[in-house]
Amino acid sequence: MARQLSDDLKLFSGTSHPGLAKRICDWLDIPLGRVRFERFANDNLFVQIEENVREKDVFVLQTASAPVNEHLVELCIMLDALKHASAARITAIIPYYFYVRSDKKDMPRISITARLVADLLQTAGADRVLTMTLHSGQIQGFFDIPTDQLSAIPLVCDYFEGWDLSDFVVVAPDAGSARRAGAYANRLGLPLAVGDKRRESDRDVVIKGIVGDVEGQKALIFDDEIATAGSMLRLAEFLRDRCGVEEVYAGAAHGVLVGPALERLSRPLFRRTVVTDSLPLPEGAEAANIEQVSVAKLFGRAIHAIHTGESVSALFR
């Protein structure tokens, strides 16, 4: 399908997720921009943009996959190189935002690192930011430049299209995620239940109860991201042991999937886990019944709209 894009559009990728960048380029029917990455003997990064970007509309994709700090610095170097190469406009595409969970000062003498990242990106040369499903919408307010947040909810819900969901209920892990889980429930036409989750430490959570009718139902647990899957596992076990739920399906925008996540999600209680390709899947994810839906078309449509001056708002829902 011809997108009728001008030659002024350029898309470059850092080393965090070149596969997604290539899928977006394929949808837009444009070549991926050429960049050279090297490392000096003193461990410093070297980045060179290998084509002319003067007065071009440039997009740079980099997601917060491990090693997170290295990918953040690499992105800043790319933005700075493009700025000093006289690009007309530079948009940082960050499917999974760096330090997204460090969005408030909830302990003394700590950094609101998500705001610091916003400052770094703007100083490096970003004129605009395009991201998806932030842990907290307030992060958009950390920027003094236009910042668009896309939604993964339609993509994840489309995965379940054609399923018989007559005996399913959507379950939010806690009150904080109830609004987002409610959007999934509304789109799928399902009832919503909410877990009473208490976090005893950064690594330990306890489920005290469930608000809503889940007895004997199949559960769809939705959250913005799955990191260690600790909260998912505790909630799934509570639903099984206390509510008679025998089948649990998990869904999230971002499959961070670190530490014991794959082992936990591969347990028989979890029938399937669905995430987007905002992050590359770790090795072994397929064996844990984890499937990806691609955000390439979503980001491709957003890039097309930004480049041509069309509205992006229809992609936010």
Poorly predicted regions are none
Q: Sum up the overall morphology in one term.
A: globular
- Class by SSE composition: alpha/beta
Query: What is CATH's topology name of the largest domain?
Result: Rossmann fold
Mean pLDDT: 94
Strand content: 25-35%
- Please give the share of residues in helix: 25-40%
Radius of gyration: 20 Å
CATH class of the largest domain: Alpha Beta
Would you kindly provide a written description of the structure presented here, covering whatever features stand out?
With 317 residues, this protein is α/β, with parallel strands linked by helices. The protein folds into two domains: 9-151 and 296-315, Rossmann fold (3-Layer(aba) Sandwich), CATH 3.40.50; 154-293, Rossmann fold. It contains eight helices and 14 strands. The strands form three sheets. The chain has a seven-stranded mixed beta sheet, with helices on both faces. A five-stranded parallel beta sheet has the order 1-4-5-6-7, with helices on both faces. The two termini are 24 Å apart. The model has no long low-confidence stretch (mean pLDDT 94).
